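Suppose you are handed a protein chain with no further information: no name, no annotation, nothing but its sequence. What can you learn? This example shows the usual starting point.
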Amino acid sequence: MAGLRPGLAVLRAVGRCFWRELQSHRSLAGQNFFLFVLFVAYQQPQSAAFFSLIVGAIVLFSVATDPLAKLPAARKQTWPVETGQWTTVRLGSLLFTPLSFVAVFLAWKADWGGVLALAGVVGVRLLAGQFASRVPQFGWRAWLLRIPSPPGWFGLLMRMHWRAMAQTLDLYMAVLLAVATACYRFSGHTLPDRARTVIALLIVLALSTQTQVLLKMDGPGFMRYRYWPLRGWKILLAKDAALLLVLVILTLLTDPLAGMAGGVAALTVGHHRCVRPASVQMPWRFTQGSLGLGALQIIAIFLSGMTAKEVWWTVPICVGMLMLSVLVYGWIWDRTGQK
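A reasonable first move is to predict its three-dimensional structure. Written in structure tokens, the prediction is:
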């Protein structure tokens, strides 16, 4: 029993670290797309299956990590754990990953295809992590540095926001929706105009929560905006332009006009919270917003996006309201910074 104590101590440390990481995923509860999925599941459970699958795939992919990788390599060398005990620790650490329980559940249901698919996802995720750690020039940090920048200070702010977006799970959920729609259309199937509009608005919805934390997406570095010789409306306008450009690209195969109108509406509402004190966004997590403001954003996105094609003057009205929101909340940001 005494020989197992070092390994058990390591397992307790690993379990504590992994539990803290799982708790950080609670930000999903404040994500607008997740709120929409809950509403759809309450009204029509069968219609929410596809959306739940997308959310679940993103979450599972993010937690498909090696639990022992959270232990610093230098600290491992100082612990009194022998080589044979590390094997026990390795096997015991599998109990701390939710994927093990998902695999057991699928095996219990005799869904061997699901087990193989889950094993494939985990394998790809672990291989990608190992490859990025051994070849840093192909890691995610290197890709962030390769993001192009439009000219001028405006372009630099846009690139900073793109880098912050690339470290949130919201973006990959929107990309997964866009890719799934593209694969469906390229496979020879056709989508009605109304269905394409709805999908475009769902892509907007996946990124809409970020509008509530525009200035906090840079992590603790958001305070640098206080020291830059730029007015608040300029910072908000650059970040709005960066987000809208991403939305237009992701909705090109569905309905870019509805996507633009919905994105403008989401930004107009989201500015109310982004200039006020809020928690700093954690990397590689879903953005967490306000439930009340999120519900208002969902209504504004679908109301403006659905009427954009039928009532053409909806778009200039939405753009005008966005410009007014940029000026007002930019002034609030400047005023609070002077206190």
